[in-house]
Amino acid sequence: MDTLRYPIGQFITLQEPTNEQRNQFIESIAGMPAKLRQAVEGLVLEQLNTPYRPGGWTLQQVVHHLADAKMNAYIRFKRGLTEEHPVAGTFREELWAQLNDYKDTPVETSILLIEALHSRFVTLLLKLLPTDFKRVVTSPTYGDMTLDTAVQRYSWHAYHHIAQITSLREHMGW
């Protein structure tokens, strides 16, 4: 079950990443919308309404969750750049996934949202100084974290969910 829930493994923080490693995380963030679009390409509503694992979210819920999570993470990141040690907001993702917009909104809407958001986020990230990534936010879930860790988590989180989609596609032969 754990490989279904975490097909790319659990998140592991890279301590003191180099500028090159940091740029790789930024590149992965830049490429994420296209990877997500590719992951759901050609799926019909019945397939999108299939859970990626027993008891898990449907593929449609995963896509909408990614949009919500990325919006929240972007705001947390910007607060980390403009406030001293802010407490990052959180959201009840399991409850958000039950709201009507997750069921009634086409996944394309969330993909377009992610494309626009990532365009802005990557523009922001590419101009930051290494010292900017040392700024700290406090996550109610993870405690204090540098923006270096936040950008890694942001990248991992996206590919974690994309892998849930692609793993189900492989398993189902879609």
TrEMBL record:
Q: Where is the DinB-like domain?
A: 32-165
Name the InterPro entries for this protein.
DinB-like (IPR024775), DinB/YfiT-like (IPR034660)
Q: What is this protein's name?
A: DinB-like domain-containing protein
